[in-house]
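During the reporting period the student researcher (J.K.) took over the structure-prediction task from the postdoctoral fellow and processed the backlog of single-chain submissions. One of the processed entries is reproduced below for the supervisory committee.
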Amino acid sequence: MVALARRGFADGAVGLSTGLEYVPAAWAQEAELVALVAVAAEHGLPHVSHMRGYEDQAGPALTELFRLAAATGAATHVSHLHGPAGPIAALLDEARADGLDVTFDSYPYLRGCSILAMVALPTWLPLADPDATLAAIDDPEHGVRLRAHLADLDELWPRVTIAWVPGLDPGEGDVAGHALVDVAARWRVPPSEAALRVLRASRLRASCVFAQPPTGTAESVRALAAHPAHLAGSDAVYQPVGGHADEGRPHPRGWGAFARFLAEQVRATGDWTWHDAAEHLAARAARRFGLTDRGRVAPGAVADPVLVDPDAVTDRATYDAPRTPAVGIDDVLVAGTPVLAGGELTGARPGRGLRPTARGRTAS
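J.K. obtained the following structure tokens:
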């Protein structure tokens, strides 16, 4: 794997990404991760990680990432960090005081979104292989162990709302946007059996929105957003892979996250100035990933301005109507081309995937 990583870091790479809460990366040992992250460090690239755990598990998960950073010298970026702000901020501050280059992103919501298999099934199942996992679910040899795992999730089920279930028989009724416990009651089965039925029908592709446990609070979201290592992010999936744009009931963060940050962190609480907002929403991300001619207004930079009405900007997307656009952002240019003008889409699509170049500028 290290050899593959070395060959993969060609000119224009932006970093190494690990998803340590997802199979198969969840099986990675620390020594293996050190070897991989060291390759990123050799190229001056950051290690970006979905940690092994969040909320009450955020402390041990962060500590692991900081050990990797200390062992390799790599910069570290934590994806969509959430959890109790006090302990998390203390760990971040200690790492930065020790000279580690650490940043993180977050979104301003108390619910997350993921595939139901990651939320509900144990990592000892081969989740990266749907055929093998589905066979194991129905294998009597694994059944007792699996149902023991599901029985320990009674606290989880009331927090789960189904977002998208491809392949479900129409006779089962509409489930997108409905709480899992309500779907289970309609089907007259326990929530764990309803979850398995959804996973079988979708071949593990079903997604869900879930409320964070009590360790996730509005106060923690606000405090983390004010931290100097913070970047704004949406962690959004805008539509199902291979599906239609109006399918399912996705998380509203894809349509409201950045406008919500502006409405809450700048206008409502005053935690950010408008200059701070530009830093959190654009400049810091550009710096972290080496896109040196993006994220700022300056001679020679790419013209990507967004015109914001400071008194009106806010999110309108909700969990019941997630695809509702934000308001107060009526004009957006990408590389100098208007893509939103007077609140209306222009039809222009000048955006391209970006990568750093050897000269520090970005290329598509």
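The committee noted the following: The mean pLDDT is 91.
J.K. will present the remaining backlog at the next meeting.
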